[in-house]
């Protein structure tokens, strides 16, 4: 692996400024995709609820405490979103067998199917958008995002 010199040289500062600007554009696009995806699942679904639902679906189950911690959301926000997801028949809730005070949350089968369809559509769009990259370049980009998520 080749490490780059990240001392505060003008070239490094310029490169980091470019990276930050590009990340801002990526984040704006992601927020737009979240809005589109939430609306595709249900016209009343908010982005926060969509993010919670996708996490729950991928994890299999979760509880409100885990969601609040993972997404750094106030418990009241999580509670409102969970309630809305249940009302929209996208989420189901049951008592935890080990701790009856906790509710175990899981996506409904219909929500899981809809999310899987959205993931396939998004993956196709990503493949089209990054089609010129090699597998090694895609993995390198993924590594960069992972490292940045830990900053």
Describe, in plain words, how this protein is organized in 3D.
The chain is mainly alpha-helical. It has one domain (10-149): Arc Repressor Mutant, subunit A (Orthogonal Bundle), CATH 1.10.10. It is built from six helices and two strands, in the order ααααββαα. The chain has helices at residues 10-41, 47-59, 64-71, 75-87, 109-129, 135-149, and strands at residues 91-95, 103-107. Strands 1-2 form a two-stranded antiparallel ribbon. The protein is globular. The two termini are 20 Å apart. The mean pLDDT is 91.
Short description:
Helix content is about 70%, strand content about 5%. It has helices at about 10-40, 45-60, 65-70, 75-85, 110-130, 135-150; strands at about 90-95, 105.
Relevant terms:
Arc Repressor Mutant, subunit A, about 5% strand, 2 strands, two-stranded antiparallel sheet, about 150 residues, about 70% helix, mainly alpha, single chain
| CATH architectural name | Orthogonal Bundle
Oligomer: single chain
| CATH fold-level assignment | Arc Repressor Mutant, subunit A
For the termini, the CA-CA separation is 20 Å
Spatial strand sequence of the major β-sheet:
1-2
Reported for the largest beta sheet, the result is: 2 strands, antiparallel
- Tell me how many strands there are: 2
Strand content: 5-15%
Helix content: 55-70%
The average pLDDT is: 91
Number of domains: 1
Which outline best applies?
globular
* Uncertain ranges: none
- Overall CATH class: Mainly Alpha
Structural class: mainly alpha
Count of alpha and pi helical runs: 6
Whole-angstrom Rg: 19 Å
How would you name the CATH homologous superfamily? Winged helix-like DNA-binding domain superfamily/Winged helix DNA-binding domain
Order of helices and strands: HHHHEEHH
């Amino acid at each position: 692996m080749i490490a780059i010199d990240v001392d505060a040289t003008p070239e490094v500062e310029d490169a980091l400024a470019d990276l930050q600007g590009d990340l801002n554009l990526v984040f704006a696009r992601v927020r737009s995709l979240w809005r589109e995806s939430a609306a595709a699942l249900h016209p009343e679904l908010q982005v926060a609820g969509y993010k919670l639902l996708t996490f729950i679906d991928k994890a299999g189950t979760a509880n409100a405490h885990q969601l609040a911690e993972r997404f750094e959301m106030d418990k009241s926000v999580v509670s409102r979103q969970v309630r809305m997801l249940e009302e929209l028949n996208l989420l189901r809730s049951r008592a935890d067998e080990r701790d009856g005070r906790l509710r175990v949350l899981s996506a409904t089968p219909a929500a899981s199917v809809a999310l899987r369809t959205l993931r396939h559509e998004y993956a196709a769009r990503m493949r089209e958008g990054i089609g010129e990259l090699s597998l090694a370049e895609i993995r390198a980009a993924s590594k960069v995002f992972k490292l940045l998520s830990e900053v």
